[in-house]
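Box 3.1 A note on notation
Throughout this textbook, protein chains are presented in two layers. The first layer is the amino acid sequence; the second is a token string describing backbone geometry. Keep the layers aligned when reading.
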Amino acid sequence: MREKVFARELKKGSAELLILSLLEHRERHGYEISKLIEQRSKGVLQFNVSSFYPLLYRLEERGFIAGRWVEKSGQRRRRYYRVTALGRAVLKEQRSAWADFVGAVNRIAGGEHA
């Protein structure tokens, strides 16, 4: 039980970094972002729709990403997101903080010797 709580907190703390990273080079729609996170983490990281889309909306409200609706014939309309200049600055900061955090944990937990 404790492992699930710990994993959930780690996921929550890294969600912004993951989303901004996937939007760094091209725009994507929400479902694509969610599926890429799941695929690239080999299923370790998965987000529920009930928490994922509100996170996208909060990132947009904070000015880190911008969204636009796209309608294609025969498909449902989708909201595509791109990272903003502010989002790029935040991503740079978060990457640095994440690297510092992982390095510190590895020094304490012995990860670099594993």
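Helices lie at 2-23, 30-40, 49-61, 85-109. The radius of gyration is 16 Å.
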